[in-house]
Model the fold of this input.
Amino acid sequence: MARSKEFDENEVLEKAMKLFWEQGYEKTSMNDLVEHMGIHRRSLYDTFTDKHTLFLKALERFGNRSNARLAAGIKQAETAEQALRLVYDSMIEGEEDAPPGCMIVNSAVELAVRDAEVDARTAGAFGRTEQTLKEIIAWGQQTGEFTNRADAEELAEYVHNTLAGLRVMLRTSAAKEKLRRIAELSMSVLRK
Done:
């Protein structure tokens, strides 16, 4: 007879995600995970197979969470400029009780060059972000808020690059005011 799990899988995955987000993959040991997640090593292996599989699930969880948060913010926007500002603001302000920066960007920087699965997942996440930005920019171009000097896809790539740089800077001691100035300059490029 199989034993039932003595923990909530979503809860422990959330804990693993935050630990990987804060420390990165290489710095996070199995002992760190067992201690932080509050489960036995055997339970970790039985549920998540190994550290790499757990990391990929945590990365997916982060991406889903970020996409949901972004979509909710954008739905509240009345204009394309307001929607884009919400993207920048939510990224710069971050989440309460969460590590700074972005787990996707951190993982791409740390692992993508040598881990094909991480590379594929981070590239996919970047593509989804660029698609969302493209939709916002196309909306702004249709309403006359944003320039038509370049197409929405090219502008989305530019904005995404700025966002990725800001996410890296969030991991440093850079002042939020500086990050807001960078965001504002980036947005000014889109205006007519």
In short: Residues 60-190 form a domain with the Tetracycline Repressor; domain 2 fold (CATH 1.10.357.10). The chain has a mean pLDDT of 94. DSSP finds nine helices and no strands in the chain.
